[in-house]
Amino acid sequence: MPPKGAIRGTGVGRPAQQRGGYARQIIGEVTSQENRSVVTAVTFFAAGVAFLHSSWSEILLPPGSMMLVTAAFTALLGLAAAQAPNTLARYNPNMRTASYNATFGILSVPKSVAQDLVPGYDLLPVPQDDSLFPNGFPEDQHPILVTNGLQNDIRITVVLPLQIKALLSAQYSVPYVDRLGNGKDAFQYQLNNYIGGIDGQNTMSLVPALVGSATGTPAVPATFDPNDKAYNVYPTGEYSSLVKQIGVFNALSGPSVQGEAFDIYSSNEPTEMYTPKAFRAMNNQPLILQGLVAALCLRNNYYFNDTQFMEPALRSENVTFGSAVKSPLKNQVYKEQGAYAAVAQILGHNPESCSDAIANNDPVASH
């Protein structure tokens, strides 16, 4: 059953006058005496989101900062739970956990397009495994993962218990990447991670995106439609979501320039291209980190076996990419692709060597 939108809030700030260019305008608003208390509160909140969203939060957050972040959460967000609760936190208090109500999509693209998206690494052959692909997978094609939804009840304990009520997030990545060069172990190469605040609180996404990129997972602030739940639901049995990357950011009155990332429409017509196991197997491949931590990888395990809140469902979807995506995918439309709507419980691990990430990856999550 689609989630109910239970988070509500009001925007902070006032419309800004359009004078002197965006950069000068933002600086003026941020340094203004009358806005200083708002900016300070938003900064603490955003920093908390960033570090909590990152697996490096144990290293990056000293005890003093954690107290400030916790206070900012309490002051800024009196939010009710938006969807299924986090069922892993009580068993993994020192790990990053969350509940993720999302549509997990698999697109079939030309292999040459997928290879262009993954600089420096070769692609592995997609396995001809009928437990994943009942009709086989075309040899000249390669999968792209596109996921969009709402992460609820995000938690980690770093001396003090920290919690973020909810974030909107979307990602697209290339699975079956040969990170170790051994021709067998499959990794994901993430192309971008889009982060948005609930109910239009888009200022909350700026610092998380910056810190996410600094810790190896490319991320940008974004706006979402809907902005308070995983996807729009229509009486016709169809669903939609729209993700736009924020370009120029006005810290008080919201985003100024946006570029469309992707537009997703799905239906209850179940895909025959993939099994539920295919979505689980690909989304649980370790992530290849980038930038300064490119020598490391990251396990984000998705557990789909908690069905008491939502029965997982195979769907069909159309995905339209906009201008704010990697070049080979810009303005491309992929119709009649496969999707899986489900609540996943996320267990995020710390960065580790890529060989350890493969060796330690939980096979239960993939199957």
Automatic annotation (TrEMBL):
Biological processes per GO annotation: protein import into mitochondrial matrix
Superkingdom classification of source: Eukaryota
Organism: Hortaea werneckii
Name of the protein described by the UniProt record: Uncharacterized protein
GO CC field: mitochondrial outer membrane translocase complex
Pfam families, per database record: Tom6 (PF17112)
Classification via InterPro entries: Tom6
